[in-house]
Amino acid sequence: MPVPHDVANINLAPEGVRRIDWAAREMPVLRLIRERFQRDQPLKGIRMTACLHVTTETANLAITLRDAGADLRVCASNPLSTQDDVAAALVKEYGISVFATHGEDNETYYRHIHQALEHSPQLTMDDGADVVAVLHKDRRDLLPGVVGGTEETTTGVIRLRAMAADGALGYPIVAINEADTKHLFDNRYGTGQSTIDGIIRATNVLLAGKNFVVAGYGWCGRGVASRARGMGAQVIVTEVDPVKALEAVMDGYRVMPMAQAATEGDIFVTLTGDLNVIDRQHLEAMKDGAIMANSGHFDSEINLKALTAMSEGRKRVRDSVEEFRIQDGRKLYLLGEGRLVNLAAAEGHPAAVMDMSFANQALGAEWIALNHARLEKQVYELPQEVDEEIAGLKLHAMGIKIDYLTDEQKRYLTSWQEGT
Predict the structure, then answer these.
(1) Contacts of 243 (CB under 8 A, 6+ apart)
(2) What structural domains does the chain harbor?
(3) Average pLDDT, integer, range 206-227
(4) 3-class state of residue 97 by DSSP
(5) Residue 155: pLDDT band by 50, 70, 90 thresholds?
(6) 225 CB-near residues (< 8 Å, 6+ apart)
(7) For the whole model, what pTM was predicted?
């Protein structure tokens, strides 16, 4: 029976298989989970819709979910992140429905989400909460059949918690992003390396000596700031949270408002999940030749409408680099259309990091499939023991051993009788 799909070129499948296999070498935790899932079939017969970046790493998660017994459909969570050879391979070689093409327009993006929902999912898996949003706005008829979902991103979790607080959330969600083995590693080390990778691939500029502005000092911002400093850049941090701003100062960075940073920066990266972090007044103050990139979630962090309105011309000067000629003669450069630069201009996070993130997704799907009957329509965190299991598997795969508490030490830590 043909697998429902919409991909760019099904004949790209062989190259996709080769790259999926390469990523799998760096994903030992997911491999171990997949082996158990093949035996236990915890998702047998469950219809799933996954809205994720269609990359080699995601492909290994999709294969794991398929091997757990899920009836899976995949669509893209970003128009520029789809790797067309991977999408083709998932359909042709692995029998998984995929609706995603690189560079798809907004209409096609949402059509693909609707196609991925046509089999009436019981579980959803999101990277930015777009599937949840479409279900609640356009396909409320499907909501009664959905028993739960997972969400991978900081931005998505914020949206879903707002829905839950308003009583608008239609089913329980597991906040994968809150797991330590996700945000402490994926957000910091993954975003840190892949953002720098995207900027360098797009521009080939030397970072050493540049004023590098990081907007937002969450885990993603911390990762980008540390990697930029490691490349020799002079890092400036902008923040609205006084605690995070203080932490950035203590970590050795200059901290200032964006209005001041705009006059000094050579390269700007936004990592906040908010909108208009770089706004018109900041664009007006930037140096000639300033480079802007976004590594938050959506393309709203840089005010693109204002940038366009200020410009008397624009052109693509390199792959993933667009030049805006401002009316006063300055030239400003935007990377990856303001979308995630690590995926628009590079290949996303390294597989070794996504190994843990997708282990959380896989085990999160299993947990909610087993426990949904007792859950309310709220946002939940994965149990700590799942987090620790993933960390333990990762250490085991790396050949690293750690100490364990003795019974005496455990008693001491849980006792109040013994003092100093």
Answers:
(1) none
(2) 10-182+350-398 (3.40.50.1480), 191-344 (3.40.50.720)
(3) 98
(4) strand
(5) confident
(6) 214, 217, 235, 237, 248, 251, 253
(7) 0.89
